[in-house]
Amino acid sequence: MEIRAFSKYRKRALSLVRGKVLEIGVGTGKNLPYYPKDVEVIGIDFSRNMLKKAEERRRKLRLENVTLLYMDAQDLEFEDNTFDTIVSTFVFCTVPDPIKGLKEAYRVLKPGGRAIFLEHMKSESKLLNVPLYLMEPFIRTLLGTSLLRETQRNIERAGFKIEKVENLFYDIVRLIIATKD
Predict the structure, then answer these.
(1) Which domain range does residue 45 map to?
(2) Residues in domain Methyltransferase type (predicted)?
């Protein structure tokens, strides 16, 4: 489920990438049009069907700087300190063990590297969480995602230093920029 307004959030998030980029949970490749041409992108996903759609989008856009791989975010097959930038958009609401996946992202990010998370999560407002709690059983069943993850806290628990948080839709959708010391 993609909300059109999210495309402007994607554009904003991907304007921040540099160097060698790992996109965790590339899905159908919705971010691909927004990457700068001067970066090398490796996109991973554990759904072969999603990767097939992402590959079709990559070919249609004629992106030679993008490689797509079948891989689990919780068990990344890369050496430590490989990437300049890590990107995740609306992913850590579905990863079964988000802390494990985030620790893997931290491991493969170079020291001084930047992680860019565009994620929806539990609000700090109890009032805003009421509809999220009401929708949770349906959303989890239909889409396999959770609206109640504490992703910002999980990012910190995984070792990242949060540099900036932008609330894009109240504080339910956030752009989080983090680094690895």
Answers:
(1) 6-179
(2) 22-117
